[in-house]
Amino acid sequence: MAEVWDDSPLPPNVRVGEGARLERRMETFQRFYSRRDPGLVLGPRVAVYTWTSFGIWDDGVVEVGADSIVVGATFMCYERISVGQRVVISYDVSIADSDFHPRDAAQRHVDTIAISPEGDRSLRPPVDTAPVTIGDDAWIGIGAIVLKGVTIGAGARIGPGAVVTRDVAAGVTVMGNPAREVAA
Amino acid sequence: MRHLEHDWYDAPLPANVTIGARSWLYSSFAFLHHRSRRPLAVRIGDDCGIYHGTFFETGTGGEVVIGDLCQIAATVFRTDGRIEIGDHALIAHGVHIADSFAAAPPGAPDHAPRAPAETTIGRSAWIGFGATIVGGVRIGDGAIVAAGAVIDHDVPDGAVAAGNPARLIAPAAA
Predict the structure, then answer these.
(1) Residue A91 to residue B148, Cβ atoms within 8 A
(2) How does pLDDT run across B68-99, given as a tens digit for each residue?
(3) Sign of CA dihedral B158, B163, B165, B171
(4) How far apart are CA A60 and CA B141, in angstroms?
(5) What is the pLDDT of residue B40?
(6) Residue A162 at interface with chain B, using a CB cutoff of 8 Å
(7) What is the pTM of this model?
(8) How confident is the model at residue A32 (pLDDT cuts 50, 70, 90)?
(9) How far is A132 from chain B (nearest CA, A)?
(10) pLDDT at B117 over 70
(11) pLDDT above 90 for B174
């Protein structure tokens, strides 16, 4: 892997397994706010490339299993995103475990005020979160989007640009927006 | 050692990269994962603009050939085979052209998908932003690939392909 040019220390609540490689730039941890310990676990030999961003909020935890390859994932985590072993997450993928804002318009109105630059974040209404789980040996295609509460089974194939809003069974291939099962 | 005079990134241009007359490349950062050992691995023609966010992710046998007068914004080229871009092609930002739908950079661990492919983008083709072109296909001369389209089949000359998965929304020109 190419040289690292951001060699500032990792946040103390990040665990990096033996042989894991982080080809990181400033943006990789720019939105890492997790107060959990650990807030991010990278298993042994995980490879994280330059385009990846770990956006992990206060109570969020992201785990990536051994030997997984994270090319260009934007993680947006309020609760938990678990990635299995030997998973390939390709370029330009987004994975989110929350809606981040209320679905109800009146509550969303309140939220826009609370999260404004001078707002009071303690006044934020609750938002829905649901963990995302990606099974061992799954491949997530270029530009795919995986949304909250989704479980992707072991060995599943997520096509490029697919928008995954429902569970994908083990070994199944899905494509499209919204993602639908196709013959492998 | 060749350096681009406007470059902010330290690395020199790889020796097996050629850039034609009056062409502009944003940075040698484009070759962060360039691993090709071919004597001529990346060839950029004359009068091309290769803009910020473009990456040449070439495996050891990979080759990217870009014609003349091509304008390319923030495109990832990932190949262990060959990608050829015809003269006068336009490629918008956020486009990925890769051998595999779940590609990883060259040098990634062995279980990453790897199947060297040949991709051709025809002369005067136009690729809209966020499009993904995978699996070694041919985009015809003058064809249009719409924004966000996912292409894993050939697109005929002059045709317009859109959607995910993409379908032809306009036939080939007569």
Answers:
(1) no
(2) 999 999 999 999 999 999 999 999 999 999 99
(3) negative
(4) 48
(5) 97
(6) yes
(7) 0.94
(8) very high
(9) 19
(10) yes
(11) no
Residues in a beta bridge with A96: A76
- Distance CA(A162)–CA(A143), nearest Å, equals 7
Tokens in use for B150? 């996912």
Residue A157 parent element (H or E): strand A157-158
pLDDT, tens digit (0-9, with 9 covering 90-100), for B132-164: 999 999 999 999 999 999 999 999 999 999 999
Q: Is the pLDDT confidence value at A1 over 50?
A: no
Compare CB distances from B101 to A49, A86, A159 and report the shortest one's residue: A159
- Please tell me if residue A88 touches chain B, with a CB cutoff of 8 Å: yes
CA distances from A7 to A11, A50, A80, B8 (A): 12, 13, 27, 18
Q: CA-to-CA distance for B82 and B119, rounded, in angstroms?
A: 6
A51 touches chain B (CB under 8 A): no
Contact (CB<8Å) A141/B105: no
Nearest to B105 among A71, A143, A175 (CB): A71
Distance from the Cα of B174 to chain A's closest Cα (Å) equals 30
Å between A8 CA and nearest CA of chain B = 18
pLDDT at site B171: 80
Q: Which residues of A touch B52 (CB under 8 A)?
A: none
Residue pair A46/A26 in contact (Cβ under 8 Å)? The answer is: no
- Whole-number pLDDT of residue A24: 76
Q: Look at the block and give the residue holding tokens 């490029």.
A: A160
Nearest to B113 among A45, A50, A139 (CB): A139
**Residue B41: both structure tokens together:** 């691995």
Whether ipTM exceeds 0.90: yes
Cis peptide before B14 (omega within 30 of 0): no
Place of tokens 């360039």: B34
